[in-house]
Design goal:
Keywords: Signal. About 15% of the residues lie in helices and about 55% in strands. It has about 220 residues and is an alpha+beta fold.
Length: about 220
Amino acid sequence: MENRTKHLFLTGLCIAHLMAIAPSVFAADEPERNDLPLIEPDVKPVPVDQALIDTENFEIGAFAGVLNIEDFESSFVYGGKLTYHLSESFFFEAGVGFAEAGATSFENLAGNVQVLTDSERDYSYYNISLGYNILPGQAFLTENYGFNTNFYLIGGAGATDFGGDTRFTLNAGAGYQILLTDSLAIHLGVRQHYYQIDVVGAEKTSMNTEISTRLSVFF
C-alpha cells in the first residue's frame, strides 16, 4: 500500500513537470514566422527637378503684348512690373505700360479727318495692384522634370494718360506664372483697364483688354 502511494505521488510529479515544460518545447519546434509579403511591389520614387520660388520677396520683369484700345484698334503694348510678395498667397504689383493708339473707324472712313493728334495718341498707364494666388500647382515638361506654377487673380487702381488727359483707371484680371528656375519666372496674363472717356462723343466707360507675357527675375 505504501509503495502504491509513492508510485501515484511520483507519477503526479512527472505529469506536472511535463505540463510545465510542454509550451516551451512546442514553441521551440514552431517554425519562425516571416511577416514579409510574399510579393514585394517594384515601386521606385521618380526624381523630379522642381523650380522653387527664390527666398527673395521682390520680383522685377518686362512684358509685351497686345492692348485693345476701345474705338482705337489694337496696339502693341510693352512695359515693366515690380512685385513684392507679402506671403505665399498675396503680393503687391506696380506696373507701367506704353502703347500708341490707332485710328478710329470714323477716321478710316472720312479720310483726312483726325480725332486725335499724333501726340495725343500716345497711350501710357501706371497702377498698383493686389494679387492673390488661388491655385498653386505643377506643370510637367517630361515625366522627370516639372515646374511649379501659380494661377492668380489681380486688381488695382492707377491712371491712364491718353487723348490729352489723365484718367483715373481701375484694372482687374488674371495670370498664370511658371517658375522656370528658383529665380526666373514667366507670366501669361490678361487684364482689363476701365476709365471714363469722351474723345469720340458722349462720356462713357472705356474697357481696354490687354493680353501679355512677361519674363521676370527674383532678387
